[in-house]
Amino acid sequence: IRYYILLKFGGVYADLDYELLKDISPLLCDSAVALSLRGDSEEYGVQNSFMASVPGHPFWRAVVSELKLRAQMPLPPKGSHGDFIMITTGPTFLTDVLREYKHRDGIALLRSHHLFPLNFEEYEKLSTKVLGSAESEPSNIKVSAGGEVGFPEKGQRVQVLPACERAAAAASEFARRNGATAIHHFIGAWTAEGPRCSHY
């Protein structure tokens, strides 16, 4: 439905597990459509977790047209739906349409460090490192009363966070320190199914 909404209304679409760290408008002001790269170059494709557009852009007509074609693909055997979703509606699908689309003027491909500063392996590694300590131990991440996250100086009091919140806070702080505009908490560090997060 995200593609249809962008076609009809335009605007910014972001998955609910995106955290905005600063004003997004400088990334969007010079383009009619903005897509986030999955890596440092177009060869890795684009995400469908963050997209922005003016209303009625023809790129979304091409996306919707291809979506209708792929909707007719036969369902795969039980247990292999992940790849099927990727190629029929997900990032692989969107990348395929973009590669075939001939009128690329006005389409901005945003480098991953803006919106996707940690890839899956990096996020998982950071989460595992942060979650390596027992939940009862203080985190090395400080959270102020206003919700600001940071690494405390020597002697500062540290707030204890549940494990999953520590992982997400560490990822957010990493992104903030590296100038990212947003971060996608896509591996579910905030859910019971996330890496080693069983208390939620």
In percent, how helical is the residue content?
25-40%
Helical element count?
A: 8
Largest sheet: 4 strands, mixed
| Mean of pLDDT | 78
| Approximate shape | globular
Strand content: 15-25%
Which strand order spans the largest sheet, edge to edge or round the barrel? 1-4-3-5
Number of beta strands: 8
Give the structural class: alpha+beta
Descriptive account of the structure:
With 200 residues, this protein is of the alpha+beta class. The protein is built from eight helices and eight strands; from the N terminus they run αββαββαααβααββαβ. Strand 3 and strand 4 form a beta hairpin. Helix 7 crosses helix 8. The C terminus is likely disordered.
Mind sketching the topology for me?
Elements: H1 2-8, E1 11-14, E2 18-20, H2 25-28, E3 33-37, E4 46-53, H3 58-70, H4 81-88, H5 91-100, E5 107-110, H6 112-115, H7 120-130, E6 142-143, E7 149-150, H8 163-177, E8 182-184
Parallel strand pairs: 3-5
Antiparallel strand pairs: 1-4, 2-8, 3-4, 6-7
